[in-house]
Amino acid sequence: MVRTSAVDRLTKLLSSETVVDLPRIEAALGGVSSMTVFRYLQKVPYRRSYNYNGRYYCLHEPDRYDQLGLWSWKDIHFSVDNSLRSTVKRLVHASEAGATHRELHDQLRVRVHNTLLDLLRKEEIDRERYAQVYVYLHTDPGLKKEQHRQRQALIADQTIIMADGEIEVSDQAVIQVLLTLLHHPASTAADVVRYLRGHSPPITAMQVRIVFTRYELDSLGKKGGALNY
Q1: Beta strand 56-59 with 46-48: parallel, antiparallel or unpaired?
Q2: Domain span including residue 148
Q3: How does pLDDT run across 167-226, given as a tens digit for each residue?
Q4: CATH number at residue 31
């Protein structure tokens, strides 16, 4: 039988300390074993971090999560789903246009390649290739069809071929190039292409070159100036 006083102490610990690890919980409960801690945790609303191999614990407070159901303390990340696998599956299913590995990595700030492959092998998600990039999709045929339609629309919006053959680069592509330069100020056009590899919708070398020419970015690194766009 779970002792109420121990559960109360555990709840108080999680309420007073933002994030704790297992040794901290064991010490707070009087040096109990890990198995005893896990038994007490079943009586408390908590979440384990989806990085650091689930080493850290926090009190589950629904209001603290963002619109993706994620919350971080420093470099420790938590999800309403309580595991990386469940979180990746939910995000893929909920995404209007499916999700690429890069998009999920940017959202979750951890590698999800192995998680995606596991979900794919167990047929809990699907995937299709779009312009050299895999997009992970819902398994439901109707929802998958709508995600496919939305992804195609994103790709179509990325680059518009004008009637005279001139390539017009979308605002989204321009923003991605400029953001890359903000993070890597001395980058050449070739560097930016490399940094944006795997982006979906894809941003081509030609699009990057157009942005560099339009905003005279080739001389930016040479002058050592700031990017003010």
Answers
A1: antiparallel
A2: 84-156
A3: 678 888 899 999 999 888 888 888 888 888 878 778 888 788 888 888 888 876 554 444
A4: 1.10.10.10
